[in-house]
Amino acid sequence: MEDYNIATLPNGIRVIHKEVPTTRIVHCGFILDIGSRDEEPHQQGLAHFWEHMAFKGTRKRKAFHIINRLESVGGELNAYTTKEKICFYASALSKHFEMAVELLADITFDSVFPEKQIERERKVILEEMSMYYDNPEDAIQDEFESLVFPNHPLGYNILGTQESVKSFVREDFKKFISENINTEKIVFSCVGALPFSKVLKIARKYLDDVPRLSANKQRKPLSPYKPQIRQVRRPLTQAQCAIGRTAYSLHDPKRYVFFTLINILGGPGMNSRLNLELREKYGYVYSIDANYSAFTDSGLFSIYFGTDPNQLDKSIRLALKELKKLKSSYLGSLQLHRAKEQIMGQLAMAEENYTSLMLMLGKSLLDLGRVVPLEEVFDNIRAITPSDLIETANEMFDPDNLSYLTFVPN
Prior knowledge:
By secondary structure, this protein is an alpha+beta fold. The chain has two domains: about 5-205, 2-Layer Sandwich (Cytochrome Bc1 Complex, Chain A, domain 1), CATH 3.30.830.10; about 230-410, Cytochrome Bc1 Complex, Chain A, domain 1. It has helices at about 45-55, 65-70, 95-110, 115-135, 135-150, 160-165, 170-180, 195-205, 255-265, 275-280, 310-330, 335-350, 355-370, 375-380, 385-395, and strands at about 5-10, 15-20, 25-30, 75-80, 85-95, 185-190, 230-235, 240-245, 285-295, 300-305, 405-410. The strands form two sheets. It has a six-stranded mixed β-sheet, with helices on both faces. Strands 7-11-8-10-9 form a five-stranded mixed β-sheet, sandwiched between helices. Strand 1 and strand 2 (about 15-20) form a beta hairpin.
């Protein structure tokens, strides 16, 4: 039996709720199946700009009233943009749930994009872009995505370009929304102590009047991946390096095996192979991470680290050495058991974060049409064999199919 409830409103918006009796806080939000990959080249950064502008004025509220509405009762209002999603969400005491829903519906569906606020927020976003550019650890991740997904929206910087951000006017936001918003691809997600009947009643009160919207813009398909090598000279004291390639999509059953490999290689634990080798053994890096991001039709595998320029080549060789080990050496039964237990523990702890859980429920419903129970995820992880890891490592870690991006000092 599922431990959450789902209902579909007449306009196609779906409501999903998980009741957690032990919390006093309700976490809720709208997850829209729209992101930076839905932008045309001249629209780069528009989805993220829209996320900012949602807080800057609606037909019934000015920016100050939006910001103050939940904060005045101890709640929080937030939003973010990814390659494939825009999320507007809030957390508040359960007794303020209706206030949170009304406010979220207002900023999601009734923003008016005041011209004066556009000019003001444009400056904020340009400052945000400068901040990221001045932080090479962030900048290399954005540029690496454009290297792996060249001339494709998945390679666009979510913040956009200075030229595009400077060009946007009110009509650009309205056009982008009308071209992309589809109420059947919007989920209102909620986690809290409230019964589903109350959640649905309040959701219907503020969402039933939202008109059915049915934009059906198709996302641009990906071209075959080709490995790239690029070196960029920048005013730095430390060299930065990104290594990786395209990876499995959200719908590929191999994603569980690959996720396990990445966790062993460079996951959040201090016992990851890359951390033990490059930091603990040689002291070449302060931190090194391996990441796997799954999209609806592709994915991205990446390794990131910074090091002294004189140690860059040595560090790359050591990273590739760890990839080679995963391709050629079977994990022993005890090693594999510990790796699985570590991943399952991390996933279980992530589900204890109710804001993350709320967002995960909505994204899963949009991307997979259902919520994958945690125990099903555990079953997939438990079923992984040493042969699965070797096979997947050989498919994904061929050094000739990896892309390399380095920032080196001028």
